[in-house]
Structure formats: C-alpha cells, structure tokens
Inverse folding.
C-alpha cells in the first residue's frame, strides 16, 4: 500500500481517481489546488503525486518545481487533457516520471501508478545504498548456518517479520546484527519498501538529529534547503538504528515520541509529519546497565524492546564455521580471480578451536587474508595468520575406540570424548557445552560425574 496524492481542480477526476486507487489498495489524499497540496506535503509523507497540468493560480509544472524545491524528489505524474509533445517533454524535463492524457482508462492509470511506484522504490533503495556504502558492513549477505542457534534465530525472525512491532537486536560486535535486520526486512511485508541504516555512533548529536528527522530550510547555518530525514526516506519500509546504545540522551525523547505516536517534526519545523516505518535497533551494549547508570531512558528501552532477537557469538556455533569459511573463500577467491575450491581439514580444526572474540567479522578477515596468500586450489594451515592457535586436538576427543569390547563400553568412551570436545570448545563453561551437545546442564553434570570428567580438565 502506498500513500498517493491526487491534485486536480476538477472534482470528478479527484473522486474517480481516489476510488480507483483505493480499490487497488492504496491510501489516497486529494487536493483541489497546489497550495493545499503543499500544505499537506509539509505534514505527511507521500509516495506518489498525480497532478493536473492546467490549474488556476499555479499550473502543474510550477507545482512540480515547488515540490522539488520544498519537499524533495517525490515521483510525479502529470495528467492533462491538452497533451502535446512539447508539454510532455517539458514535464519530463522538469522531473515528472510520466504523463497521462485525459480521459484515461482505469487499467492505464493503474499501470502508470505501478511503474511510478516501482521508480520510487528504486530511488529509495539507491538513496539507502549510497548511505550504507559509508558503513563497514563486514558481513556476508546471507544468514548462513545450520546450527541449532541459527535455526532458532531464523524461526524467530519468521515469527516476528509479519508484525509491525519494534525489534531490538542484541549481540556481540561482529556477530551479524545488521545481517539479521536485513533478513527480517526481506521476510516482512515491507520488503518492497526501503531498508535504511544509520549508525548512531558515527555521527555527532546535531548531525544525527538532522539525518534522522530532517530539517527545514534555514534551521541552522548551512541549511539552504529542506531535507527529508531518514524517518521519511524509510516510509513504508524499515529503519535500522545501529549502535542504539550510543544514541544521545538529549535526543531520546524525540525518538520515543516517534515510537509512541508515529509522528515527528523536522529540525526547525513546526509541522507534524507521519511516517509508516518499522524501527529496528541493534546494540552490543548492556542497555539495562546503561539505564541504571542514567545513560539510557527506561521508557525508550521498553518501546524498542517489544521483541528481542539475539545474534549468537561464533564460539557458540562452531559447527557453522566450515560453511561460513567456504562461503567467504569462494567470494574472495573470485574477487582475486583464483579458483580456490577447498579447505584443508586441519584448517577447519584450527578455526573451530579458536575463541573468535571478533566473531564472524574476524573469520571473514582471516579468510580474506588466507585467500591472498593461497596460490593453489586449497586453503591450508600455512595460509592462516600465526596468531591462530595450533593446538593439537585431544586424543580422547578425536581418537576412535578400538573394537573388541562390549558395545556399552564403546558408547561410553565415545560419549566421554564428545563431552570433552564440547567442553574444550566452550572453554569449560558447562551451560555452553550442554547447548552444543543438545542436552540440559543437569544432564551434562550427571554425565561428567559418570565419566569422571571435570570442566577444569
């Protein structure tokens, strides 16, 4: 559904177009002159304007210029009963995406509207991409992995995606919080709208306010024209507030109002603006601790935290490392023009023994380095940085039991080896080891006692 503004001094055309577009599922506002339309545009975000060309006091081309000057680049379709090649060229030169002659057929107008909205979506995505190019993504574009933790995360995303509720994505640095946000957006009914990202830690307080809420011309030195904020750019889509823990305390009441009322004002403006945007926030900070320290508003936290999605650290899902490593290797090998097709099993063992303080981002960087030094078709241990541990796997964890003994005894030995391996990967943390094994912590403690093992060992 898109918000479409119809501007025509003829009531019959306004009524017919409004009914036609509403029946097609769109939200429609109407104005009988450009001045009323400009007043509406100052209050509300609009995805498309359909305007008559000949109107008293201000014609359609002058109205189009005013929209470009005062509001921004909104897709604009000219309607006219007096179309000529000259008027059509003038409209397109002024920035109209299309024109339509009166009287028009219903399927004609619906086709033009569909094309214009596609154009609008493309513009919004390009604008979002230009801003996202300034950010360090550092992560793959697909949420890869078959571990229980990733499967649960994907299932949670599927449950949450259809709703409009705000989502808080938590997790350590480098775990892929922005990747989760992109997956959530693509799984939602808003996937045709833009996904816009802003890093709250990368901007000063004043610049963050201007980027997020927009500003009016003359609001401050250098504000030579009105600027739409990201809350307007993301209308109909999703806005990701990355590093929300760094959001300035003085601006938090304005963000809280957006979440409560779906309304805001541009910097230096008085008009109330509505935006149909889903807000997703991401952080690696302990927000409850920040609330206790007075650095984050409790009411804002609860508004953002309607649903929480936790991105698991890589050390808790080592079984995903081979797939992630191979995916990165194919990407970087392709960029270098090398056909690196395989990873030596010893490399996988080294990678899975690492603690990964930098998570998936660290893995990506290590594989990129490995691809640079790999001249053959297989990534080998010598291509990895010396900083990675080269610990030999424990014999009890890797050696297979010898046959010739009763089956219960063999199974006990295999079970003890797997428990030992899980404890190694979890660095002795029983809760994490139990999660890796898919059993409860109490069950793990029983088995430790049964096999005479301890976490410290």
């Amino acid at each position: 559904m898109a918000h479409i503004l119809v501007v025509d001094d003829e009531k019959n055309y306004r009524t017919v177009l409004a009914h036609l577009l509403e029946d097609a599922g769109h939200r429609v506002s109407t104005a009988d002159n450009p001045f009323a339309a400009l007043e509406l545009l100052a209050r509300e975000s609009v995805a498309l304007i359909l305007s008559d060309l000949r109107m008293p006091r201000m014609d359609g081309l002058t109205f189009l210029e005013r929209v470009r000057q005062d509001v921004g680049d909104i897709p604009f379709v000219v309607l006219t009963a007096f179309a000529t090649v000259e008027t059509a060229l003038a409209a397109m030169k002024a920035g109209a995406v299309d024109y339509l002659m009166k009287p028009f057929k219903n399927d004609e107008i619906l086709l033009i509207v569909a094309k214009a909205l596609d154009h609008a979506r493309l513009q919004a995505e390009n604008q979002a991409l230009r801003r996202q190019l300034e950010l360090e993504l550092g992560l793959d574009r697909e949420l890869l992995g078959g571990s229980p933790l990733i499967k649960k995360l994907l299932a949670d995303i599927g449950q949450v995606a259809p709703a409009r509720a705000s989502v808080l994505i938590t997790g350590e640095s480098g775990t892929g919080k922005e990747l989760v946000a992109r997956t959530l957006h693509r799984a939602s009914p808003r996937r045709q709208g833009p996904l816009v990202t802003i890093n709250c830690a990368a901007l000063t307080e004043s610049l963050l306010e201007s980027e997020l809420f927009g500003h009016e011309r003359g609001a401050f030195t250098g504000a030579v024209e009105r600027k739409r904020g990201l809350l307007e750019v993301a209308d109909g889509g999703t806005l990701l507030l990355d590093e929300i823990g760094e959001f300035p305390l003085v601006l938090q009441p304005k963000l809280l109002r957006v979440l409560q009322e779906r309304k805001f004002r541009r910097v230096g403006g008085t008009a109330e603006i509505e935006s149909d945007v889903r807000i997703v926030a991401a952080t690696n900070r302990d927000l409850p601790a920040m609330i206790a320290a007075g650095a984050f508003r409790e009411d804002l936290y609860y508004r953002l935290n309607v649903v929480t999605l936790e991105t698991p650290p890589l050390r808790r899902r080592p079984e995903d490392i081979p797939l992630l490593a191979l995916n990165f290797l194919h990407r970087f090998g392709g960029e270098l023009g090398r056909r690196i097709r395989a990873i030596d099993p010893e490399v996988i063992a080294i990678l899975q023994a690492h603690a990964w303080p930098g998570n998936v981002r660290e893995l990506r960087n290590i594989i990129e380095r490995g691809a640079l030094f790999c001249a053959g078709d297989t990534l080998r241990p010598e291509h990895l940085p010396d900083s990675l541990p080269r610990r030999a796997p424990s014999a009890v964890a890797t050696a297979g039991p010898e046959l010739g003994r009763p089956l219960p005894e063999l199974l006990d030995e295999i079970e003890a080896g797997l428990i030992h391996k899980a404890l190694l990967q979890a660095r002795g943390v029983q809760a994490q080891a139990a999660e890796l094994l898919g059993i409860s912590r109490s069950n793990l403690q029983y088995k430790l006692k049964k096999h005479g093992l301890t976490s410290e060992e």
